[in-house]
Amino acid sequence: MPRLARRHQWAEFQHVVNRASVRAKLFHAPSDYDLFVGLLARAVEKFELPLMAYCVMPNHWHLVVASVSACELSRSMQWLTGVHAMRWCRDHPRRGPGPVYQDRFRSIPVQAGISLHRVLRYVERNAAAAQLTARAEDWRWSSAHQRLQNCNGPKLRAIELLPTEDWFRYLNEPTLSPDIAYAIRRNLPVGDEAWVRSRREALGLPEPRRRGRPCKA
Question: pTM for this one?
Answer without folding.
Answer: 0.86
